[in-house]
Amino acid sequence: MLNGIANAFRVPELRKKILITVGILLLYRLGAYLPAPGIPFKQMITVGQAITSQSGALAVLNLFSGGGLSRVSVFSLGIMPYITAQIIMQMMQAVVPSLGEMAKEGESGQRKITQYTRYVTIVLALINAIGYLFLFKAQGIDFSGMPGVPEMLENAIIVVVLLTGAIIIMWMGEVLTQRGIGNGMSLIIFVNIMAGLGPTLVQSWQTSGIGAIVTTVTLIVMIAIIPVIVYIERGQRRIPVQYAKRVVGRRIMGGQATYLPVKVNTAGVVPIIFASALLYLPAQLAVFFPNVGWIQSVASALASGWINWILSVVLIVFFAYFYTSMVFNPDETADQLRKQGGFIPGVRPGSATSGYIKNVLDHITLPGALFMAALAVVPSILFSFTGNVLLQSFGGTSVLIMVGVAMDTISQLESQLKMHNYGGFFK
C-alpha cells in the first residue's frame, strides 16, 4: 500500500488532485474552529455544549458539522443544507418531467441542475441560519464580542456569516468532486466523523463501571464489522453475457463470453446519508420554536425512539432503490448490449433483457438496503438502553459512511493509478 501511495505522488495530475483534496479538507477543519462573530475565542469550545447535550438530533447534526455547531463556528450549518438540496433536486427529477429531461441532456443539463441545487442550498442555509440564531439566543449564548452593536445588526451579521459559511462548504464539496479525489459531500462527512472519534472515545472511557465495558465491547464490534461491510460493498451479482460472432472486413469479431457485474449495494452510502438528512430536518426546523412543546416533541420523536427506528429502515430501503434507479438504467444497459451484439443466454434481447436486469437489480438491492438499515438502527436501540455516547455518535451509520467513503476514494485512486500503468494499492 505504501508503494501505491508513493506511485500516486509520482503522477503529476494525481498528485495535484491529492494535494487539492487534502488542502480543502484542512481548510474545512479550520473553518469548523473559526468562531462566529461575537463569540469569545477562549470560550468557543464549551459555549455550545449545552445545545447538543439536550437533544440527540442536535448531537448528530453536530457530528455531521464536525463539531462546528457545538463551537458556534462559521461552519455551524455543516454540509446538511447541501445534502438536503440534492435530495430535493433528485426527487424533483422523478416528479417534474422537464427536470427529468434536463438530466438526460448530458453535461449541459447537469450544469443547469447543479445551478438549481445551489439556489436551493442557499435558501435552505438561510432558513437554517435564522433557526440556529434563535437556538443560540434561546440557550442564552451572549455574543459579547460585539459591544455597542445594535441587536438587529448583530443578528443580521451572525445570519450572514453562517450563510456564507454554508456557501463556502458547498463550493468546497463541488471542488472536491470536480478536481479532487472522491465525492466531495461524502469526504466532508467522513472528515467530520473522524474528527470527533478521538474525543468521543476519551469521553466514553472516562465513564466508570459498565460504561467502560460497553465502550470496549462497542469498539471491538466496530472493528469486527468492518470486514463484513467491505464484503457487502464489494459483493456483486455477475450476469453472464455472450457476444455473437460477426464479420467486420476480414476479421471475425465477438464470440466471447463475459459477464455484467451488478453490485449488491449500488447506491453506496448515499441512502443512509439521505435518510439521516431527512430524519433530522424536523430538528433543524424545531429551533425556530424553542418554546413550543409539541413541535419539540415531534422533532424528538423523529430523531430518536421507535418512530425513528422504523422510519430509518423505511427511508434507507426507499433511497437505496431510488438512488439505484438513478445511477443504473436497465433499459440503457439492455440497449447497449443489443447494439454491441451481446445477449444474456436464455433471455431475448430488448425489453426481455431489460426486465431480467431490473429483476436481478431489485432482488439484490433489498439485502444491501436491509444490511445498511440494520447497521443504522441496532446501535441506536442499544444506545437507548446503555446511554453510551460512542454508540450514539459512532454507531453503524458512522462506521458504514467511513468505510464506504474510504473504499470509494481508494478505488478511484487505484483506477487512476492503473491508467498510468501502475499496479494500484493492493496486489
Short description:
With 427 residues, the chain is mostly helical.
Note down, in words, how this protein is organized.
- The chain is mainly alpha-helical.
- 70% of the residues lie in helices and 5% in strands.
- It has helices at 2-10, 12-33, 49-53, 56-64, 80-95, 97-103, 107-138, 151-179, 184-206, 210-234, 270-279, 281-286, 293-303, 306-327, 330-339, 351-386, 389-393, 396-419, and strands at residues 236-243, 246-248, 251-253, 257-263, 342-343.
- The strands form two sheets. Strands 4-1-5 form a three-stranded antiparallel sheet.
- A hairpin with a 2-residue loop joins strand 2 (246-248) and strand 3.
- Helix 2 packs antiparallel against helix 8 (151-179) and helix 11 packs across helix 14 (306-327).
- The longest helix is centred in the last third of the chain and has 36 residues, at 351-386.
- The protein starts with a helix and ends in an 8-residue tail after the last helix.
- What is the count of DSSP helices, taking H or I runs of 4+ residues? 18
Structural class assignment: mainly alpha
Biggest sheet character:
3 strands, antiparallel
Basic shape: globular
